[in-house]
């Protein structure tokens, strides 16, 4: 039994070593992927803004002064740069900082965290871009939350929500006090990871490598969890055997023993003081 526990421990240590190698592999892949993603988002954000300002709301953009137009363009470019820096910082905080201490299941959680952060950062960048466009009188969005809620519901249902890419067009219900004819479609920027990857072949190549590495990680984690459970079971069995000793009941009094006790008491009472 002790040999079995030792073998399981060695197997777990070997799997942890493989996980450490995967951490470095994921770090390298994500660094390249996120760098390309940041550059791609910057380009596609500008394309979406260009289409919005020249095709959807051309009069509003032409109505801006040159300095206002440049301010809008610079602000959009800055958002793309900030997105890339934010994603790379997430990678450093999530993987690089704990590279030597990560077991497979923790690495799985770290990967999920990175992917969730990518979506969250794209959402925030979309909001910031729309606020910037609104500040420059290109858009007028009464409720960003309501608009993004509609987009999220359509996305979950599998319905296409952006056409052209990254431009969301939705009908947001007016308040009861407003007239029905005031319900006009709202156009806004809505960055989606699927559209971004489809438009960038190099980014898709990195995503393919990430999927392969993730499949390898999931198999590794499954093996790790099974061996962890087996080791815990073996340790419990060993502890049971080590703490076991036969039950030894105390001597049970018999009738003859009780009679002897009575006779002894009588003799004690008959003694003279």
From TrEMBL:
Residues 247-273 are annotated as: Disordered. It comes from the Bacteria. Keywords: Coiled coil. Residues 257-267 have a biased composition (Acidic residues). Residues 196-230 form a coiled coil. This is Uncharacterized protein. The lineage of its organism: Bacteria, Bacillati, Cyanobacteriota, Cyanophyceae, Acaryochloridales.
């Amino acid at each position: 039994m002790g040999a079995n526990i030792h073998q399981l421990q060695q197997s777990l240590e070997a799997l942890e070593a493989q996980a450490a190698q995967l951490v470095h592999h994921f770090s390298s892949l994500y660094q390249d992927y996120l760098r390309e993603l940041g550059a791609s988002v910057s380009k596609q954000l500008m394309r979406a803004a260009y289409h919005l300002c020249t095709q959807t709301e051309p009069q509003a953009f032409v109505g801006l002064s040159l300095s206002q137009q440049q301010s809008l363009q610079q602000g959009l470019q800055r958002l793309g740069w900030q997105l890339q820096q934010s994603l790379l910082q997430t990678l450093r905080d999530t993987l690089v900082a704990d590279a030597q201490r990560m077991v497979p299941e923790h690495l799985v959680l770290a990967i999920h965290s990175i992917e969730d952060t990518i979506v969250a950062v794209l959402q925030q960048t979309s909001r910031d871009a729309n606020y910037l466009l609104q500040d420059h009188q290109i858009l007028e969005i009464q409720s960003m939350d309501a608009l993004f809620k509609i987009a999220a519901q359509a996305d979950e249902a599998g319905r296409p929500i952006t056409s052209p890419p990254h431009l969301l067009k939705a009908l947001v219900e007016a308040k009861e006090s407003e007239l029905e004819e005031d319900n006009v479609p709202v156009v806004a920027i809505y960055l989606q990871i699927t559209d971004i990857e489809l438009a960038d072949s190099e980014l898709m190549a990195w995503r393919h490598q990430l999927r392969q590495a993730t499949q390898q990680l999931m198999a590794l984690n499954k093996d790790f969890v099974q061996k962890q459970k087996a080791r815990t079971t073996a340790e419990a069995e060993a502890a049971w055997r080590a703490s076991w000793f036969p039950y030894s009941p105390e001597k049970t009094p018999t009738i003859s023993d009780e009679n002897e006790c009575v006779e002894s008491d009588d003799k004690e009472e008959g003694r003279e003081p």
